[in-house]
Design brief:
Elements lengths: L2 H17 L1 H7 L1 H31 L3 E5 L9 H6 L5 H10 L5 E15 L2 E11 L11 E4 L4 H5 L4 E4 L1 H7 L9 E4 L2 E9 L13 E5 H8 L7 E5 L6 H15 L11 E4 L4 H40 L1 H9 L4 H41 L12 H27 L3 H6 L2
């Protein structure tokens, strides 16, 4: 088919759509809704990825933690609980044998503590005892103040570094530094506040507070607690090697033989990948289901309208065929008309979604300022995807009516009233 014929088909199609504006608008409504779901689903997944990348960058893609507990909950609770605690002796032996990681250090946790200041309090907080080395990791980035020093750990100083969530609850004006907070019956002097690390599904990691390890042991005890070992790789590319080496060290330290399973877990940000995949799958499933439903309605509507269009223009088709128009020209004209109908619907949907997302982000950020990193604009690749999908839907919807138009007998068509 010549280019001139394609251009002519587009011109005829535009004239037909222009002469039936109301009908064309109502017909493309299903496509507008379907494309809208595609675009919004793509934007939602893009925002999910942004939030996850932001969280991973603060958790540290180069960090892993040897622990009694499995972060992902992949092992039965009863089995985890029956494991022997990781002791300080285990920790020291591991650190002494470590050769490949940049450094490693111990951590102790006390769960579900209440931190209070004057009449304000926040519960469900994890108090973590660790070394000053923690501040060398990406998770230990300070927003205000400083982290405690090795000297303060040796002196068992009652100093504390608050997580962003704890500080924001107790000190919404950002004046936490220099205040004295209470954890249970113990008083701590606030010397620092960590930057916000959790977003959306990971905001619980901001509900933590950090104290020197010896201070933690002195106040909360360690005999019934299991240590964690934080390990920092020199780069994220070395994580696989560090993981294998760390597992081997711990199995030796714990006295496990070749037939015994690990009685510890190696946790890292990668542990949450399955959770993110599940969330992404749910979004895709809901989005695709709604999209298919909208497209089915749109295809049926467009197909019916195209049948009506073929019937209304039967005599025109007969005249064109009598003047020498080929079947392929008639077929192309109606396919182009159906595709244009869908393509215009895609453009309307894209513009509408862009406006919705732009103002929607403003509303969301007004309530949740920490989500300001999410894009308020639609990526151009979504426009390309929407255009391709709309054209495909148009061809699918217009194929049968176009084939009927192409097969009309010119003599019978000229007699049509």
């Amino acid at each position: 088919m010549k280019l001139s014929e394609i251009v002519e088909s587009i011109r005829f199609s535009l004239e037909s759509l222009r002469s039936n504006k109301t009908r064309s608008s109502l017909t493309s409504l299903g496509v507008v809704i379907g494309i809208g779901f595609v675009v919004l689903m793509g934007w939602s997944l893009n925002g999910l990825e942004q939030a996850w990348d932001k969280t991973i960058s603060t958790l540290g893609a180069d960090m892993m933690y040897i622990d009694k507990w499995d972060w992902a909950g992949g092992t039965k609770w009863g089995l985890l609980k029956s494991r022997n605690n990781i002791t300080l002796d285990n920790v020291n032996k591991f650190i002494e044998s470590n050769q490949y990681a940049e450094f490693a250090f111990p951590m102790l946790r006390a769960w579900g503590k209440k931190v209070s200041y004057n009449s304000k309090s926040v519960g469900g907080i994890s108090i973590i005892g660790t070394l000053s080395t923690y501040t060398l990791t990406s998770a230990g980035t300070i927003e205000n103040g400083r982290f405690f020093t090795e000297f303060e750990d040796e002196r068992t100083s009652n100093v504390i570094v608050l997580g962003y969530g704890v500080s924001n609850t107790l000190f919404p004006n950002g004046d936490a530094l220099g205040k004295t907070v209470k954890v249970g019956k113990y008083s701590f002097f606030v010397i620092g506040v960590l930057e916000k690390r959790g977003f959306l599904f990971m905001d619980f990691i901001d509900n933590q507070a950090f104290v020197p390890l010896k201070t933690f042991i002195n106040n909360f005890g360690s005999s019934r607690r299991s240590y964690s070992i934080a390990i920092k790789a020199r780069s994220a590319n070395e994580m696989d090697k560090i993981r294998d080496e760390s597992r081997g060290y711990m199995r030796t330290i714990r006295g496990l033989n070749a037939n015994q399973e690990d009685d510890f877990s190696i946790n890292e940000s990668k542990t949450f990948d399955d959770n993110i995949k599940n969330i992404r799958l749910y979004i895709w499933s809901i989005g695709i289901g709604l999209t298919l439903l909208s497209f089915i309605v749109g295809i049926i509507g467009i197909m019916n309208i195209m049948f009506v269009s073929v019937a209304e223009r039967t005599k025109e088709i007969g005249i064109r065929k009598a003047l020498g128009a080929k079947r392929s020209s008639i077929l192309t004209q109606f396919l182009v008309e159906a595709s244009l109908l869908c393509f215009i619907g895609a453009i309307v949907a894209f513009i509408g979604c862009s406006i919705l997302i732009f103002f929607g982000k403003m509303v969301i950020v007004s309530f949740y300022p920490d989500l300001s990193f999410i894009s308020g604009y639609l990526p151009p690749n979504l426009l390309i995807i929407a255009s391709i999908v709309s054209i495909f839907v148009g061809i699918l919807a217009g194929l049968i009516p176009a084939m009927r138009a192409a097969k009309l007998d010119p003599v019978e068509s000229l007699r049509f009233e």
